[in-house]
Every structure is written in structure tokens, then in C-alpha cells.
Amino acid sequence: MAATAELQPQEGEPMDVGQQEQLPLFSTINILQIVKSSQDSHGLRYSDYNRYRKYCTSKLHRLRKSLKYGHQYKCVRKGVSVKFKKRPVTVEAFADEMFAQIHLFEAERRWARAMYDRATLDVSPEKLRKRLSLRTSLKRAVLYATQLEELIRESPRCDAATKLEAKAYAASLLGFCCIELKFWQRAAEALKAANSIYDQLGQMATIINDEALQNLYRARCNEIKPQLRLCEHNAADAPGNVDEINQLLSEKLQISHKDKQTIDDLVAKARENATQKAQQKPAAAGQKTVKMQPKKEEKQPQARKANTKQKTEKTRQAHRAQPTPKLSKPLFYDLAEFCILMPDLGDRIDEVTKEMKTVRAAREAETAAKAEAERAEREKKEAAKEAQKQAKAAKQARVSAALQQQQGGKKGTPKKGGGKKKEEEEKSAEESGLSGMVKGWIWGSK
């Protein structure tokens, strides 16, 4: 304890790699389990990517604050904008398991933003801008995932299982990004590597007897396999790539020999650690220790078909062997068959057709009566309007006749001293061309 306490760095001082090698290993960081639990509990169960993105942002803020590893701001004189200095996680500063989650949730934040852009791509009016944002976010997610993988690979305090988890996570994100960019061959290689690593991790979970991890890795493999088939199909159909197609068919999308050797070494170390953990666990009373059982050979499809045929034939024979139950007639069967006369169906059909004809005729008569009533009402309104017009015309004729008579009477008996004025008004009226009714009105008013 004293030796390890001396090796612990002070606050704000990084630790050398040589000092980290002398410290004990971290516990296994199950990256996939952390990601899936946070996704299921913060919006992705209902495909709410925006909520998950906000959670990742707040999670990063809390992580940096708790680890006291926030970004730096350079102090400058008043009136100048503050200069921001990013503080990345390095191998020397990797003194706690929580430092790995900074890069992890940075990648998850970028991935959630990309998935949100893909979900709103059809609704957005600017589709090209939204697609560019999607691809940029995926590239940044791959960048942070590769930084996480490099950090864990170079750290001497991380075990082999954690390194495999980081490599598989980075490879799966790279594959999904290459699918979006339509780099089919590169995507197929990355997804093939991720699938093989998750398969190995699932086998190691059986050694530890952890069913939750085993189901998690199996579900991840089932998610990757359809994407892998899509990449293989599109890579084979790509025009002008005959050499690449032959290479894919010959190698079957295997990863390079160097990467395969490193992955095999990590798998061997992880298996050793898993077996040691399983042996260290105290066995319960009356229970046997967990041992790795060899895989059972899968049955051939022909043998499966033969077994299914035998089972179906046995069930058929069992049903045939059962005696058929005898049906007994009810007591009133013969009475109903010979003594009761059933009504003729033809008469009923004739009655129904007659009822339908009468109903149809009544409906037609009703519609005709309504149309006749509407026509009569319309004619009545038109006649009333015509009578009003004639009365109005007669009234106007009477008024005009009365005005003419009044004008004629006043012309015969003019007033004294007003003869000259009347003659002048008559001349002005004749020159202006006014009608007789207007003239009468003028003379009558005066």
C-alpha cells in the first residue's frame, strides 16, 4: 500500500508510463454494456436520438468536473476574447477508469447527432446540408472511437478484454460510417473484424458464466451480420473492381495477418484471465465448478428434415389410431324431417322483391312531388316580381302625366312681372336639352 501510494501522482501532475506499469490493472471496462445501458435508459428505446445526445453532453460535463480535468481558458487582457485551449486525454493522464468514458461519450454524442440527422432527413427542406451534417458527425464519432482505442491499447493498466472491447467498438463505428459513405469494401473489412471480436468475447463470457454479457454480445453480432451481407453484396456488384472482387472472394474479407495476430494474442490473454477469475470464485456447496464444454456438432439440414418428417408421421399415426366418435341423432330429428313443412323460399323472395318495388316507386313519387312543388313556388315568385315591375311602371307613367298637365296649365297663366324671367329660363332649358318632366319640375317649384 505504501509503494502504491508513493506512485500515485499529485493533483494536476501526469504519471509516466513506467510508473503506471507498476500499478495494478484496472477492472475490465465493458464498453458495450455501458453504451447499451445508457442508450436504453435515455431515449433510444423510443428512438429519441436528440434526448440521448443531450444526455451525452451533460455526462461529459459531469465526467470532466468530477475528474477535475476540464478544458483550459487562457487569461488575456480586458477587451480581448478569451482563448480556449482543448485538453485531450493522454496516456500519462489516464490514472482512472473514468477517463476512458470521456472519449466514449464524445463518440456517442456525435453518433446520436448523426442518427438524429438521418431521422429528420426526409422532413428537412435542406437535404444536402442535412446529409453533410450527418456524414461529418459520423466521421467525428469514428475519430473519437479510434482515440479511445489508441488510449486503451497504449495504457499498460488495461487488460486484454478491455482492449478487445475498444477495438470492436471502433471497428463497428468505422463500418457504419463507411456504409454511409458507400465505401463497401472498407466497411465489410471493419464489420468482419468487429463481428469476430464480439464472437470471441461472447465465448469468454461463457467461461465466466455471465449470461447477460453473453446475450449482449450475441445481439451485437446479430445487428452486424445484415450490414455485413449488404457490404459484401455491394462490394461484389461494384463496376470496374475485378481484382478487388477476386481478392474478396479468395480471402473472404479476412483482416490482415498482423492485425489478426495481435487480436489472437489479446484473445488468448483474455481467455487466461477469464479462466483465472472462474477458478478464483468459491464454488457453492454441492455445486460443481464451471468448465468449458466443447461445442456440439451442428446437425446437417438433411438430418433435421428427416427428424421433422418422422415426428410429423408419428403424430399422424397417433391421430389415425384414435377411434372416431359415433354421432347420435336427436329425438326430434325424424319428426322435423317428415312431419314439419318448411316454407317455400321462392314465395319469400317474391314478397321481398314486391316490397322493394313499392318502396322504390314511393321514393320516386316523393321526389317528383317535391320537384313539382319547387317549380310552382318558383313560378309564383316570378309572377309576383313581374306584377311589381308593371305597378312601378304604371306609377311612373301617372307621375309623368301629372307633371306634364301641371306644366301646361302654368304656361297659359303666367304671373305679373315674371314674363321675362320665364322666357329666359325656357330658352336656357331648350339650349341645355332638358326633358319635359324636368322642365315641369322647375316651373312647378317656382
TrEMBL record:
One of the Pfam families matching this protein, by short name: SRP68
Alphabetical list of InterPro entries matching this protein: SRP68, SRP68-RBD, SRP68_N_sf
Keywords tagged on the record: Cytoplasm, Nucleus, Ribonucleoprotein, RNA-binding, Signal recognition particle
CDD domains: SRP68-RBD
Location in or out of the cell: Cytoplasm; Nucleus, Nucleolus
Family, as annotated: Belongs to the SRP68 family.
Protein name, per record: Signal recognition particle subunit SRP68
Organism of this sequence: Diploscapter pachys
Upper classification of the organism: Eukaryota, Metazoa, Ecdysozoa, Nematoda, Chromadorea
